[in-house]
Specification:
The protein is of the alpha+beta class. Strand 7 and strand 8 form a beta hairpin. The radius of gyration is 34 Å and the shape is elongated. The N terminus and C terminus are likely disordered.
């Protein structure tokens, strides 16, 4: 039946205050004896009803079957006095059969001389759906990023082989031919030109070897992650002329091939950032492990940066490092401050989590 103003279950001293409750954008409800004793139009409308239709309706009839037990348990805990107030997102059943999500905050109060649950609710179905879509979008993005990383590594391996075998082979053949010309020629001028060409070819062969190594470190495939890091750090020192330190000087860790590649790329990108941006004089690389996890730390003594700067958060290099850390089931932490250098720390499990790609 229709509620009259005298039935309104609040101590409302004035009609304007009663109007505020009736027209509130938040839903208001009272539950007693497991039935709705009052709802304003907003709360009833969340389930597709008018306030007249909800009046006297059993609570369990307004909840999806799978959620009835939890809702009734929460109701009884408050009615019994075990818990005075609760704030949670509940699942409601719309009259069209769909589920609605309602953020409710209800507490025990006296209504007509007996305990009741009085509360307010806000429909957050749209927000829940958007959050779910965003989570799915992030999942799809990470899957795409993972596949792109895999494809990139396959291409790098192919390019490294081509550069090393084809281009390196051509340059080596040219070097041999120049050597034969120098030996057979009696002209001092030609021998001088041959000598210059030979020097250029030696430099080109070294560059090809360096390029091939950067695309696909041979040590990573044949000697393991620790040897690859040590070898790359040595070449980095020779190119940059910075002080470098590896602690411990030698280490080994048995990881699946793709995981070793991901760790190495994070290490490689961190050193690239040091060379490009840090203005550092020294770099220290530390490795430690436990039975189940490992830590790789790259620390420089450069100019540092503010971690909150948007340009740094959006850096493709940092984004790539974080995505690779996520693929590993780990985390990437960047600690930095202006004039105090930067420390990049990768923490990841040794045993692959079943939730992460294998």
């Amino acid at each position: 039946m229709r509620q009259t103003p005298n039935d309104v279950p609040f101590d409302m001293p004035s009609v304007p205050f009663r109007g505020i409750v009736e027209q509130s954008v938040a839903g208001v409800y009272i539950l007693q004896d497991e039935h709705f004793q009052y709802t304003n139009a907003t709360f009833a409308g969340m389930a597709g009803y008018s306030d007249d239709e909800v009046l006297g309706k059993p609570l369990r009839d307004c909840v999806p079957g799978y959620y009835v037990g939890e809702v009734m348990e929460r109701y009884k805990r408050r009615i019994s006095g075990e818990v005075k107030s609760m704030h949670f997102v509940t699942h409601g059943l719309h009259r069209d059969g769909n589920v609605v999500h309602i953020d409710v905050h209800g507490q025990t109060m006296q209504f007509r001389g007996r305990p009741a649950v009085v509360g307010v609710g806000v429909n957050v179905t749209g927000q829940i759906q958007r959050d779910a879509e965003l989570l799915e979008s992030r999942h799809e993005y990470r899957e795409l990023a993972s596949r792109l990383n895999t494809m990139r590594e396959q291409q790098r391996a192919e390019y490294a082989r081509e550069v090393h075998d084809v281009l390196g082979g051509l340059l080596t053949s040219m070097k041999l031919d120049v050597g034969r010309i120098a030996r057979r020629s009696r002209s001092t001028a030609i021998r001088g030109i041959a000598s210059d060409l030979n020097a250029l070819l030696v430099e080109a062969i070294d560059n090809v070897r360096e390029l091939s190594e950067s695309m696909r470190p041979q040590a990573l495939d044949h000697l393991g992650l620790g040897a690859a890091i040590a070898s790359h750090l040595k070449r980095f020192r020779e190119r940059s002329e910075l002080r470098v330190s590896l602690q411990p000087p030698e280490f080994d860790i048995d990881l699946p091939r793709w995981r070793s590649i991901a760790v190495f790329r994070i290490f490689q990108e961190a050193l690239t950032n040091v060379a490009r941006h840090a203005c550092a004089t020294g770099v220290t690389v530390r490795f430690r492990r436990s039975d189940t996890a490992f830590w790789l730390e790259i620390e420089d003594d450069g100019i540092g940066f503010s971690a909150g700067v948007p340009a740094m958060r959006q850096s493709l290099g940092l984004i790539s490092m974080r995505e690779r850390a996520y693929e590993l089931g780990g985390t990437l932490t960047i600690d930095s401050a202006p004039r105090f250098g930067t420390r990049v720390t990768l923490h990841a499990p040794i045993v692959q989590s079943p939730l992460v790609r294998t």
